[in-house]
Amino acid sequence: MTASSQPSASKDINLDDFETRYRSGPWLNRFVFTLSVLLALAHIYINTIATLPELWVSAFHFAGFGMLCALLIPASPQWRESKIALFCDGILVFALIGMVLYIVFFEDALYARGVTFNNADWIVSSVAVLMSLELIRRTSGWFIPFLIIVALTYVVLWGSWLGGMFNFPGLSLETLLYRSFFSTDGMFGSISRISWSFVFMFILFGAFLVKSGAGDFIIDLSRSLASKMIGGPGFVAVLGSGLMGSVSGSSVANTVSTGVITIPLMRKAGFPARFAAGVEAAASTGGQLMPPVMGAGAFIMASYTQVPYVTIISVAAIPALLYFLSVGFFVRVEAKRSKVIATESDDAVNMSQVLKDGWHHIVPLGVLVALLVQGFTPTYAAGISILAVVAASFLSPRHRMGPIAILDAMAQGAKNMSTTAVLLVGIGLVVNVISTTGVGNTFSLLITNWANGSLLLTIILVAIASLILGMGLPVTAAYIVLGTLSAPALFNLIAESQLLEMMSSGNLPEAASAVFMLVDPSTIAALAQGMPMEQAQALLAQVPNDFKSMLMDQALGAQSVAMILVTAHMIIFWLSQDSNVTPPVCLTAFAAAAIAKTPPMLTGMTAWKLAKGLYIVPLLMAYTPLIGGDPDTLLRLSFFAIFGMYALVGAMEGYLEDKLSLLPRIIALVASIMMLWPDLAIWIQLIGLGLFLALFVMGNKSYKKTT
């Protein structure tokens, strides 16, 4: 089968997953297309040369994409052909327009009255919140609206009924609606600003790339690189999904666009159907971990941590590569076990021909990376990169983007953004409640108390919470909520563990040691020489909380503290991805199962097994300087982590080049621990590597004898 005969990877990722109104008539399609193009143009203008109040822009952003959702997705699937339902949604469209106009023309009047609501303020703000709930219900189900209602009623109603640390005296409904609608703390706060700036521009950039044929280029390039390897089609899925996900930022879209090619390839080569679907789901999930886009997570992380976006994506690269390698190890093991050697000759793709036909697709990505490295803002870099996509398309006669293709790309980008936009705006209501009530700090203290100061137990609790939230929330929303709630606790534990290590080893700087003069002056000499870990823990526990931040800055340095904060958020972001592949709700695995025609729940279990890197790599982040370490440290960590994860996969599967009996399987597990366990001496890690290589060589010889 030639490349040209494969299904197209550049198939538009649209709203077909929902019961849309695409069949309601050509006039509606034309109107939606025109509205989508206008929204794209407006957002490009807003993100480049406009100087408008952020509240106005956020309201326009919500209204515009809310109109798209209202017109495309009916309130119930049974009403997709109903003219009455369409008429009612037309009223919703006019209500959204009226909401924006009200903010623009009547915001000053509210402040002139001393922020006292009149009847119109009550009506407009209440209807805006209700419209947000309804639009999110249509696109994401009931869970998020329920979560928002629980959060809002906690502020004005039942928070005062609670005792203990979660008691909240309450705010008036007027104050809550003001903070939710008129201020830049609620619906139209920082999350909305990230949505209409960074997220939209990169989703639009991805839409232009896909429209230019970059998806086909990525798949063909992956096939040319991996097709001759053992288990080549599986590696095509891993490479293709990683590369596609690096620009699409959506795991489900990644699965749908690449899975239609890779899953049939894997099945044809001899992989079991369920394993093929699991590989695609696990690899597509990793697409959100791969820079530069990373879904919306990188932009939100940059906003939360105040660390530059380019720094976020640079430190995220090595962990993402480790994840894809871990999936690749499962592919190789299954390929050997299922006797999948290589693809058939008619599936081969010539790399030189692929690069000759599609090298121009690399240009926009190069422009994007270059601009980010030079310090330009992500929105500016994305805007210039979109122009680079159009310009680069003229370097190939097959992919030139004329006016029609450009308009199609803008319309598709806006449609792709619609569900994300209404979701992020609505999640702003929850974030506002968390910040207003201080429940985030309370939750962090609760996790710390439950974990009893254990970093490992804290990570396990965060993982459980992320899985529960992920059953009803998309991964980006789950990260936002969980990051707001638990990142402070995780940050404190990681920072304190590093601080305790310095205290016990006698490497604490003098400026930091001076802080302990306020606690126990007699310990200064012991700090200089080092002390037992138990004594260090007892001493640190005596430091008042008000002084701990200053102590960490002086002991670890501002740069290290910033990287620890990024590490805490990166761990939470990684753990939030597990809902993509973990039953009972795992949309990415379900999408792959639909393509492979395998049982969805069993496919989810397979994908969950293959995505073990989602748990191993965050542990490495927490206990080692995998985020922000110096080059020598990163090289050593990555080297042993690669072989350690391979050994772990062999121990889990009972297969490493050939079937492992019980004793070699135990040896493989021990070898993986010796290479992955933090802070072990290098000679111990080398022994672990030697054990693994011995098993690998013996297994390879045994395998050759049986083939």
From TrEMBL:
GO terms for cellular component: plasma membrane. The keyword Nucleotide-binding does not apply. One of its GO terms (molecular function) is transmembrane transporter activity. The lineage of its organism: Bacteria, Pseudomonadati, Pseudomonadota, Gammaproteobacteria, Oceanospirillales. Its main location: membrane. It is a multi-pass membrane protein. Residues 128-625 form the TRAP C4-dicarboxylate transport system permease DctM subunit domain. Part of the tripartite ATP-independent periplasmic (TRAP) transport system. It holds the Pfam family DctM. Keywords: Cell inner membrane, Cell membrane, Membrane, Transmembrane, Transmembrane helix, Transport. It comes from Marinomonas arctica. It is found in: Cell inner membrane. The chain crosses the membrane at residues 31-49, 55-73, 85-105, 117-136, 143-166, 186-210, 230-247, 309-333, 417-435, 455-482, 555-575, 610-628, 634-655, 683-699. The keyword Amino-acid biosynthesis does not apply. This is TRAP transporter permease.
